[in-house]
Amino acid sequence: MDDKLRLLHKNLIPAYAYFILTVLAYLSGRFHTYFSYGEFSQSISSLWIFLLLFGAVFNTLTAVVFTLLKRQPSRFALAVYSSGVVAYTAGLSVRGFFEIFGHDKSLIRFYEFAGIGLMIIGILLIVAYKQRPSAVMNKKWSRAIRVLVQNGNITSEEADAMAAYYGDI
Fold first, then answer.
1. Which residues does residue 24 pair with via DSSP β-bridges, in sequence order?
2. Digits of tens for pLDDT over the chain (169 positions)?
3. Using H for helix, E for strand and C for coil, what is the string for 3-30?
4. Where are the alpha helices (DSSP H) in 74-130?
5. DSSP code for 102
6. How is the chain split into domains, by residue range?
7. What pTM does this model have?
């Protein structure tokens, strides 16, 4: 059980970061609304909702699912997905500033398309590629024992006992 909790906490690190960013975006949106002197931007006010749903909630669900599967999502796939979230968030922020200042915002669509495209590619990569837990890969087990642990047939404690008893299988 200790391995699952450690893996869950490791998988939840991006969710913690997105939750902090969500709180900061909410506070900055409230600050903007309070001190805006009548100027209002729907994009800036709703930025925190996007970060909450597509950042914190998505990464929490991903962490729980991959912990139940005793795996870690690919770092590259999470980086691509996070880049999409950042690109879309930047597009919302820039659109909000343009709404306030009354400028043309026709090029902002590229941020949105790039963000959505990167998020879709990231989700596909997360589903397709799974990184094995590093704790399993760092052990001095034989390949047969490592496969049993990775498939969830035995725990790491049982694998240590098997490796001590049988040696290199």
1. none
2. 567 787 788 888 889 999 999 999 999 888 877 777 777 778 888 889 999 999 999 999 998 888 888 777 788 889 999 999 999 999 888 888 888 777 766 777 888 899 999 999 999 998 887 655 544 444 566 777 777 777 777 777 777 777 776 665 4
3. HHHHHHHHHCHHHHHHHHHHHHHHHHHH
4. 75-101, 109-128
5. T
6. 2-131, 132-169
7. 0.71
